[in-house]
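Summary of Year 1 activities. Much of the first year was spent building the evaluation harness for sequence design. The harness presents a backbone, in tokenized form, and records the residue chosen at every position. We chose the following record to illustrate the format because it has been used consistently in internal testing since the harness was completed.
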């Protein structure tokens, strides 16, 4: 009985929390609050403010009922000392959210306040810029390109010759590059596509001894590997208060591929290997706004995957399918750090 009461109270709190309006404000300039008898004007986005004015506060509101949100906006204006609230954007309930979402700015044209030091009035162009910033739609596109370094995490096989083991170690560190596009249905949730490739190479001195004659041929071991991923990505982001910066977490599941071209000691053996499997990718990063619609981003990325068979062509011959021993898997895992540019539409 007691557990049922506790569960009912818990569900009731969740319902009330979901129905209550969400209010986020940023105070830009401090001014004495207005009295309860002062009237607050509400302006639509296209309305023009006559004379000089200054932005005191920005407001972000979300709630199921529209009229109560307007009342909250006016009270926020009253506490900030502004006699005007101007709408920057209004998103009605849709498939992405059952709430009205309002962005607005609090304005004052009080001459005595504007005459104070540091309280210069803003131009219509500056006001329009602020309205554009606050009124950016939650639905948006993000296009990114990035590049960086990575380290491959797979285990090195046992019982290798020292020169071959060192050759594999040299290819653990590589370079990654890629591109992605994401559409955000809401401010926080987005879906998109991503392509990323990790490239590593090594060339080191080696020698080959013929078993019949004992002849020694000197040359190089060369190896050029690519680990790539292509697939859909789910993104969750948290915007900063000024909506210019963003923390994000991304996860994807798609196709992971492997290509490897190499040769041993003056082309006595050349080979080309390919494999395709399923792979996952996880990313955590931060985008820093550096210009209008443009961000500089840093990201930690982790790819996971592997394969147990591959196609190989030796000395230009026809490709042959090769399977690894039972229980063996060639790793496609790596961890990387990238920097990139994001263009936000």
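For this record, the design step produced the sequence shown next.
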């Amino acid at each position: 009985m007691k557990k049922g009461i506790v569960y009912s109270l818990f569900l009731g709190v969740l319902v009330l929390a979901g129905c209550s309006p969400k209010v986020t404000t940023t105070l830009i300039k401090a001014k004495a609050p207005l009295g309860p008898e002062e009237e607050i004007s509400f302006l639509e986005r296209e309305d023009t403010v006559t004379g000089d004015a200054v932005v005191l506060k920005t407001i972000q509101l979300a709630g199921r009922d529209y009229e109560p949100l307007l009342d909250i906006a006016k009270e926020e204006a009253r506490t900030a000392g502004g006699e005007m609230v101007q709408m920057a954007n209004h998103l009605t309930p849709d498939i992405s959210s059952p709430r009205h979402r309002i962005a607005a700015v609090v304005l004052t044209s009080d001459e005595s306040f504007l005459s104070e030091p540091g309280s210069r009035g803003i131009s219509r162009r500056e006001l329009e810029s602020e309205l554009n910033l606050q009124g950016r739609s939650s639905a948006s596109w993000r296009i990114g390109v990035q590049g960086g370094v990575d380290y491959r995490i797979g285990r090195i096989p046992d019982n290798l010759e020292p020169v071959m083991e060192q050759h594999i170690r040299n290819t653990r560190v590589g370079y990654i590059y890629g591109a992605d596009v994401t559409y955000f249905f809401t401010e926080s949730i987005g879906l998109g596509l991503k392509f990323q490739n990790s490239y590593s190479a090594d060339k080191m001195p080696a020698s080959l001894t013929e078993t019949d004659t004992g002849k020694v041929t000197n040359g190089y071991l060369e190896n050029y590997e690519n680990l790539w991923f292509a697939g859909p990505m789910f993104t969750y982001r948290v915007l900063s208060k000024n909506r210019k910066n963003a923390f994000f977490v991304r996860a994807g599941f798609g196709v992971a591929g492997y290509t490897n071209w190499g040769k041993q000691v003056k082309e006595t053996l050349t080979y080309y290997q390919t494999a395709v499997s399923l792979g996952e990718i996880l990313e955590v990063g931060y985008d820093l706004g550096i210009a209008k619609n443009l961000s500089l981003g840093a990201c930690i990325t982790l790819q996971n995957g592997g394969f147990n068979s591959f196609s190989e062509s030796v000395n230009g011959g026809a490709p042959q399918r090769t399977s690894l021993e039972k229980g063996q898997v060639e790793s496609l895992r790596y961890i990387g750090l990238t920097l990139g540019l994001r263009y936000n539409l």
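The helical segments are 2-19, 66-80, 111-114, 124-134, 162-170. Quantitative recovery figures across the full test set are reported in Table 2.
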